[in-house]
Specification:
The chain is an alpha/beta fold. The chain contains 15 helices and 30 strands. The strands form 8 sheets. Strands 8, 9, 11, 12, 13, 14, 15 and 16 form an 8-stranded mixed beta sheet that branches. Strands 6-5-4-1-17-18 form a 6-stranded mixed beta sheet.
Amino acid sequence: MTSTAVKAESITLRILATSDVHGHFTGFNYFSQRPEINGLVHTATLIEQERASADISLLIENGDLIQGSPFTDYMVAAASSQNPLPLANLLNSIGYDAVNLGNHEFNYGLEYLSQAYAGVSAPILSANLHATSSFAKQHLTHKPYVIIRKEVANTAASTTVINIGLVGVLPPQIMQWDAHHLTNHVRVEPMYDAAQRAVKAVRDAGADIVILVAHTGMPKQSSDGKDSEQGVWELAQLAGIDGIIFGHQHEVFPGTEVYDGLDQVDSKQGTVFGIPAVQPGVHAEHLGILDFTLNYSKERQGWVVLSKAARVERVTAARNEALVDQLEPAHQATVAFMQQPIGHTQTTLSQQFARIEPTLAMQLIHDAQLWYIERYALANALPWTELPRLSAVAPFHAALSASDDFTSIEGGAVTLGDIGDLYRYPNTLDVLVVTGKTLKVWLEDAASALQLGSADDRWSWIKTDIPSYQFDTFSGIDYQINPSQPIGQRVETSPEINDEQKYAVVTNNYRANGGGDIADLDGSQIIYSSPDQIQHILIEYLRFLGDKGYPATLRQNWKIDKN
């Protein structure tokens, strides 16, 4: 965006930020088939208001934009036949000045990433991502930093330029989470090292003010700020940074208390080591805002920061109707895409109680995963195919209270939309070979998502600050969890697990490669990686079941010991 020149001894520079939008563009819930107050059509009105009251503004997107909703699922499905995709026109119409890459940008591979962003006028950022193959260099056009120049007319009627430097980073763990797309194509270095080099470079190139655009968060409920994935606490200590946009964890900062255990973090004022910082939540429900009052010093021949502040604003029901109209064709195509039937179920599949008891919805995913690997095992007589086989699956949209939303698929036809609701990520399937000792730790880590509750309140057993995607359930073994016991002694299995016995565990590539820091899984235990997404495996499994559909018989293979 080009700002109109203003005359002032001091000016307001406003940095606006979205992050973790996850494909929520239209303000429409494709699962409930109802409008909702989120998405960029709503954020755009707030952006316009905030721009109007600042002398100069920039709008930054901080990653995890092109994955996570039926709209983006439709985009992926349409990629082979539709060019261009609707994303570029959307971002250009809103007027983004820069786009930082997040981890989910790589879920569909580099070629799709390139196609999704084709035509976006804003520069793409990432300082710690390096293309190493000719294929990657063909499809990646990002820069480690960018300087955006804005003209300001001062009171002496001479034109002064303010140079705003933006440096982007993302979690190096993408090399684990999307290894099947990235191995031998890119290299990702630690965020701190890359940011330190890029901040110095952008300062040397003439930046008057530097904003770190970081698709990473900070350790929660901890006094230890050092973390290779959640790196903002360390990054904030770099010299030369004036403001921070961060994300990845879907928190709202300032405002949340989850970082209060960290030294030099002020969750009310929104500062980290005195630097204003914002994390604007998820699904374009909030807009992050950094405000700087600057004065041009003739003596210093440069800009001086007089004041700085951070805040987050919630979107309202107001929409940008021009954007609504612009997105309408893709919106209607997404609605039609979601309605395609692919199989049926004999009864309702609900994840309402998936945090406290077995459900048919979770059982379907377990069965599909084991069915898929069973076919592979029959065709390939490999040593690991003879091991005891388990499935590990976490519920993505389970209720945490009686008033919460949850996935529920009515008995009868199952559509693509239902599959997208049941399994919300484009994960692929991996098989790990782990020892019984590791499997015990895995079970105990999952059990830490529960707490001692009361017999008259079924929801009281859920530890709500642990997200549902961290609560792995297991098929292929019977077990019970006793939350009254300390973590590490909560789970009893039948048959009892032998520490030395090896097990083949079928799970998603995120967990297999260390996602969630469960049981010291780090990718080294992977013995087989499927080329197929679990969503597609579910579709294939339901089609395999044919007219009889998914049965209504529930296996109660685990329970909470409430005695």
